[in-house]
TrEMBL record:
<keyword id="KW-0456">Lyase</keyword>
<dbReference type="InterPro" id="IPR027619">
    <property type="entry name" value="C-S_lyase_PatB-like"/>
</dbReference>
<dbReference type="InterPro" id="IPR015424">
    <property type="entry name" value="PyrdxlP-dep_Trfase"/>
</dbReference>
<protein>
    <recommendedName>
        <fullName>cysteine-S-conjugate beta-lyase</fullName>
        <ecNumber>4.4.1.13</ecNumber>
    </recommendedName>
</protein>
<dbReference type="InterPro" id="IPR004839">
    <property type="entry name" value="Aminotransferase_I/II_large"/>
</dbReference>
<dbReference type="InterPro" id="IPR051798">
    <property type="entry name" value="Class-II_PLP-Dep_Aminotrans"/>
</dbReference>
<comment type="similarity">
    <text>Belongs to the class-II pyridoxal-phosphate-dependent aminotransferase family. MalY/PatB cystathionine beta-lyase subfamily.</text>
</comment>
<dbReference type="GO" id="GO:0047804">
    <property type="term" value="F:cysteine-S-conjugate beta-lyase activity"/>
</dbReference>
<feature type="domain" description="Aminotransferase class I/classII large">
    <location>
        <begin position="46"/>
        <end position="395"/>
    </location>
</feature>
<dbReference type="GO" id="GO:0030170">
    <property type="term" value="F:pyridoxal phosphate binding"/>
</dbReference>
<dbReference type="InterPro" id="IPR015422">
    <property type="entry name" value="PyrdxlP-dep_Trfase_small"/>
</dbReference>
<dbReference type="Pfam" id="PF00155">
    <property type="entry name" value="Aminotran_1_2"/>
</dbReference>
<keyword id="KW-0663">Pyridoxal phosphate</keyword>
<dbReference type="InterPro" id="IPR015421">
    <property type="entry name" value="PyrdxlP-dep_Trfase_major"/>
</dbReference>
Amino acid sequence: MINLAPAKITLALTMQYNFDEIADRSNTACVKYDLRRFFFGNEEVIPMWVADMDFRTPDFILKAIRERAQHEILGYSIRPDSYFTSLINWLKRRHNWEIQREWTAFSPGIVPALNMAVLAFSKRRDKIIIQPPVYFPFFDAVKNHGRKLVYNQLIMDKGRYRMDYKDLERLCSNGARMLILSNPHNPAGNTWTRVELQRMADICLKYNVLMISDEIHSDLVNRGYKHTVLASLSPEVEANTVTMIAPSKTFNLAGMATSTVIISNPVLMKRFHRVLDSLHIEMGNLFGNVAAEAAYTHGDAWLEQLLDYIDGNIHALIEFAGNHLPQVKVIRPEATYMAWLDFNLTGMTDAELKKFMIEEAGLGLNEGVQFGPGGEGYMRMNLACPRPVLMKALEQLNHAMGKRMAEG
C-alpha cells in the first residue's frame, strides 16, 4: 500500500489561501452582520466592529469537524491526549513557552474565564486594576461581582500607549489584589515588550498582586513585532500569573466556545477549578475540541499567510489615511487585526462621531468610549476583511469626511 501522508503534508504546506474572497455572512445568525440594525439602526453599514474575521474558517478545521459529524452520535465528549499535545506543541512552537498538561483548564471563552478568575481569586470589595482604554468586558467582570474597579490608565505617547508605572505602584501599594492585563492590547494593538512586562510584573510581585493575562490575540502579531508571554518571564512571574488563550481569534472559531486557562501554580489552579466545577461547564463543546486540535496541529502555514494579508491591510489603511484623511490618526497595531483610529482632530463629540460613522460614512465601528477612559474621540476598526471591502470602507469614509468639510 502506498503511504500518502507525505504528499498530504506537502500539499498543506504549499496551499495558497484566497483572503480576497468575499463570503456572504448575512442571514447566518451572525452577530457581526445580522445584528447591524440592532446595534447601528441600519443594516446597510459595512460591519467592521465585533472581533471576528470575514475570512473562511480554514479548510483543515472544517474537514476535521465534518469527519467527526459523520459519526451519528454526538454524546458527551472528552479532550483526548492528542488535543493537549497539539496545544502544548503550539505554544512551544509559536511562543517558545513550555507548559504542562496539568497547568491547563477549560473555559467556554475568555470572558467567562475572566469572570471565573475574579470569583476564584478575589473577594467582594477587593480592588482590581485594569488599564483603560481596554477591552470593555474587563469592566463588567470586575463590577458584576461586587469588586472595586480601579484604573491604571494608559498614556498615549508618540502614537503608542505606555504604562503608568508610578500610578500602578500607587494602586498596588494601596491594597489592589489583582491586575487584568490585555496582552497584546485590545483595542490599540500594543505588543508589550519584555522590558515593559517585567517592570509591571516586578511591581505586582512586590505587592503580591495576582496578574491575569488575556493573551487571546497572542498569535496575531504583525510583521516586525514579537509577542512576549507574560508568564514566560521567570518562574516567579509564572507562579503569580493566570494566562488565558484561545484559537478563536486566530482561526475564526469564536462560535466554537473553546478557550484554555493556564495556571502553573497548583494552589491557584485548585481555587480556579473550584469555581469551574461549581458551574459545571468544564466538559466543553465536542466540535470546539475537534476544531481547536485541528487548528493547533495544522494551522502554521495558514496563519503565516493570514498575517501577511493582515499586514497588507494595515499598510493599505496607513497609506490611505496618510494620503486622504489628515484628520484621522492611525495608531499602528503591532498585533491584532484591529485598528485604533483617533478622530479628535475632527472636533466631533463622541455622539456626533457615532452618528457620522453610521449615517454619513455607512460604517459600523466600535465607539472608543466603550473601552473606557482615554477612548474619547477614537473608533476601533476591524481590518480582518477582504482588501476590496476595506478599500470600499475607506473610500466611503473619505467621501463623508470631504462632504463634511465642504459643508463647513
